[in-house]
Amino acid sequence: MNFNLFRIIFCPIFYIRNIFLEKKKLYLARKYPVKYISKYHKKYYKKPLDLVRPRTLHEKIFWLEYNTDTSEWSKLTDKLAVREYVERKGLKEILNPIYAVYTFLPNNLKSIIDNLPTQFVLKTNNNGGGTAIIVKNKETINHKKVYRQLRDYFYDDYGMRTAQPHYSKIKTKIIAEKLLINDKNPDSSLDDYKFFCFNGEPLIVNVIQNRNLENHSFIDQFYTISWERILYGQSDDDTPSIEKPSSYDTMVLIARTLSSQFPFVRVDLYEVDKRPIFGEMTFTPGFDTFCYYGDRVLHLGDYVDIGAFKQFN
Q1: pLDDT digits (tens, 9 = 90+) for 12-35
Q2: Residues 264, 306: Cα–Cα separation, whole Å
Q3: How far is CA 101 from CA 66, 124, 125, 191, in A?
Q4: What's residue 313's pLDDT?
Q5: What is the pTM (predicted TM-score) of this model?
Q6: Which DSSP symbol is given to 260?
Q7: Cα–Cα distance between 171 and 42 in angstroms, integer?
């Protein structure tokens, strides 16, 4: 069959099918979130999700999500509200400067751009990772494209569509903040150091390097807290190990301080000019995609003690 004829006939069918499947997925996540997470957990991990006797990291955190009070999660997942928490912990110096905060989506982007420096980052305070809009030169940006992105993020109920309701409790705001530059390689993204912390003790560091938001590519490596490479038999085994950051010891202390009151939380940090910069705190890391961490972190559930938590009736 001629390729153009094939495209004319079948592409609309595939397009309509994908829309239907996406709507079905959203409906399931909104109306029956536990069924939603159970379905995709089994799809990616080839094993049922057990919330009666949770053992793995994902099972225990989903148990906490749906059986306990997660109001504190909402406060600290909010990329604005968490700054107050960081300050209360005596770590104000690790916060990235904010230029402006907007509580509504303006009719056009110009009203925002005119009052910002040449370089900046735009993001919402209640969405997942990978949604930051990086502007390296505001004179050359595509205003319509950036506005569409910002509009999509502003009206997206991320918590609802990913069965993570603590996100949905955060009132949407737009943040304009300083663009952090990788001083070792200005053309590359900053290395992202994600500390998996258990009862205030960071045990695993997931390092993300060379992230490209356009095609969602990146280098992904894991280390012990003593910076020993963890190899999981994945495709990253042949890549060179990432150098430990200069401020690593300080990062570990920061992760301990911020995570001290939680059975589990991931604390994300960057390094700029050899000093740590706070990224965010995440209580359900990678759970919107499930397969992001895969079974590489499931065993970490052994370190999460949920016995002290009061379960909702």
Answers
A1: 555 455 554 556 666 666 777 888
A2: 10
A3: 31, 9, 10, 26
A4: 45
A5: 0.88
A6: T
A7: 32
